[in-house]
């Protein structure tokens, strides 16, 4: 398991020991460090369009729009005719996240969802598998007779992304196909709020079952909100799920406002921290915020410039490590913020997947903490029940860097790990 950033690792191969067993692609709950993600399996078609194109098909800009097969076929036909399509990618916010995690960690993850039982060349299922890391364990997918979902990402000249989604059989995931043992052995479980839209489909109950398993086995549970539209339509139900199950909540500033009523990211994060342990909030050109709790006696003051906003000196304790709120006798709220890496890419062609990239970095740090705790349980790093290996400030840097890589390319998933660190962080940091 790799840790975030460059590390000095000594490699050796004792000749007196027997040769290790060849690695397997399937996760072993008693031996591997991995995360589990539940998603609507979907393939994204990327296309560049005008605002007039969206109006023609009654597609609401900046939102995720469910369309029937007939409308999706008409959209695809016109995009093909006008040569607007740039590429096909495996998609889904959780699919993107766990793929990126496996690329960053160079380690296993598990995908829960559906997959076409009969995969043909050029089919959505074929594209999905081709564009997903081989480290992602797909052995627990449920076979379905039809196609997985198809999502058309429509990018307007201002860089805004809009989704037209044809579900196919992507919402047919049954609760009986949720493996409790696999979730029980995970470093974290991550899902999205999208299944809440489908009261008449089995995937909603499957998601709730998975959340219950993670809660039962005390597995850190991560939820990403999807879009503002989902939050508005399912606000009360979503808030109850967050209160009952969620440790880490990820969102953008629009989703945060829809959930809390606060347009200011700091105020929104502050309100959400009454219910969860960590908040990851991406705010576009403003950068991203990572907020949470730590024990008062364990808080560490930053050496970075102090920042103030709606909360004075909000980043004072950002060198602290995240802890569960319930584990803190005297909890302190911690807020960290970072501007876009290097000001952001010179040209942003596609913002799809940037938030997923940031979340994958946070998940990597959470799993690194799990790995280190399992390997060296008596380390001073685990003197308290920390949720992550690194500090709020350091995770901010890591998440920000991964988001930059996504924004700098024209695809929602990483094709490789990060290059060597450009900053001058001391190696000693990782042993604090």
The average pLDDT is: 89
So how many helices? Answer: 12
Q: How widely separated are the two ends?
A: 19 Å
The oligomerization state is single chain
Roughly how much helix do the residues carry, as a percent range?
Answer: 25-40%
Strand order of the largest sheet: 7-5-1-11-12-13-14-15-16
Q: How would you characterize the largest beta sheet?
A: 9 strands, mixed
**In terms of structural class, how would the helical and strand content be classed?**
alpha/beta
Low-confidence stretches: 5-13, 421-432
Task: Report the portion of residues in β strands.
Answer: 15-25%
What order do the helices and strands follow?
EEHEHEHEEHEEEEHEHEHHEHHEEEHH
Shape, per Cα inertia axes: globular
Describe the structure.
The chain has 432 residues and is an alpha/beta fold. It has a domain of 186 residues. 30% of the residues lie in helices and 19% in strands. β14 and β15 form a beta hairpin. The C terminus is likely disordered.
Task: Produce a short descriptive summary.
The protein is α/β, with parallel strands linked by helices and 432 residues long. 30% of the residues lie in helices and 19% in strands. The strands form 3 sheets. The protein has a 9-stranded mixed β-sheet, with helices on both faces. A 5-stranded mixed β-sheet has the order 3-10-9-2-4, covered by helices on one side. Strands 6-8 form a two-stranded parallel sheet.
What keywords describe this structure?
19% strand, 12 helices, nine-stranded mixed sheet, alpha/beta, Ribokinase-like, disordered C terminus, 30% helix
